[in-house]
Amino acid sequence: MKKFLLIALLTATTLGGLRAQQDAQYTQYMYNPMAINPAYAGSRGVFSIAGMHRSQWVGVEGAPATQTLNFHTPVSDRVGIGLSIVNDDIGNGTSQETYFDGVFSYNIPLSREAKLAFGLKASAHILNLDFSKLSNYNNEVSGTGLTNIDNKLSPNFGAGVYYYNEQFYVGLSVPNFLATKHFDGDASSSSFLAKERMNFYLITGYVYELNQRWQFKPTLLMKAVNGAPLQVDVSANFMFNNKFILGAGYRWDAALSALFGFQPSDQILLGLAYDREVTELGGSRFNDGSFEVFLRYEFRSRYRRNIAPRFF
I need a labelling partner for 205 at 20 to 30 A (CA). Which of 53, 117, 150, 217 fits? Predict the structure, then answer.
């Protein structure tokens, strides 16, 4: 188990400059675009607050867990603002990262329904690495030879562009531009280096009105980062009567997903998702898959008196 946790930890960082860090992973990205694109802020026309929890590889002690909390709102017909908090944990505190992001967007109307938004993000990243927690037993020495990192604060900034109308959206973004480096206590040593690289995102989706009760929305998310394979997520979601959502997704060469959503009112959306790895890890008897729960609540505002149960 200690070896597994160390591998998981190093997957999230860079070892010897050969592996690149990926941002936190989401299956229900289609309901939480602001986590990856600041230009989304204010696009729903109301004050929107959302929280998400993801437990990855349930059954594996110390497996990754991620929590997000964000809100965003329009402050005028063209300007939106928001705040996002992300906490990512591996190994029950062995590696813990917390992001605080402030976002700003500016919308340009292109037609009666279509808008083009530009977004900026300023963030503070706090990193903690405690390698002593890799020990399984009281009398066992960690043996990693790596120095802990305590509350390492790193600033960053990102940007994005987002086009949308009532049925279609597409966005490009780079959440973090700065390639922050974290050393093992000695800036002259490169035996261990955690390096955050730029992640490039493309997100898009289209809503088809099948009839008065059914809507169908295919979505796509692509993530690219230097030193790691291209990640592609596709999903197909059906909404019935503006209340029930059923969907399935596929993370290329990685996992299959099932999604369920329930919108009891125009203001509340509850989402659940389950992932099952299609790799060798998914067939392990100690891995019960990954789970996500998502909750969003929206307030009425003077910019949009009636909240439309929009699919994105």
Answer: 53
For residue 43, give the 3-state DSSP assignment. coil
For residue 202, give the nearest of 179, 227, 174 by alpha carbon.
174
- For residue 43, give the nearest of 133, 148, 171 by alpha carbon: 171
Sequence-distant (6+) residues with CB within 8 A of 260 are 245, 246, 247, 271, 272, 273
Look up residue 249 and give its DSSP letter. Answer: E
| Average pLDDT, integer, range 173-189 | 68
pLDDT at res. 38: 95
**204, two tokens:** 């898009």
Query: Where do we find the tokens 């959302």?
Result: 50
DSSP 3-state assignment of 188?
A: coil
- List the structure tokens of 249: 């997704």
Residue 72 pLDDT? 95
pTM: 0.82
DSSP one-letter code for 10: H
* Cβ partners under 8 Å of residue 51, min gap 6: 67, 68, 69, 70, 294, 295, 296
Token pair 């305590």 is at which residue?
A: 150
Joined tokens for residue 101: 């992001």
User: Residue 117: phi, psi to the nearest 5?
Assistant: -115, 145
Q: Say how many CA atoms lie within 13 Å of 250 toward its Cβ.
A: 5
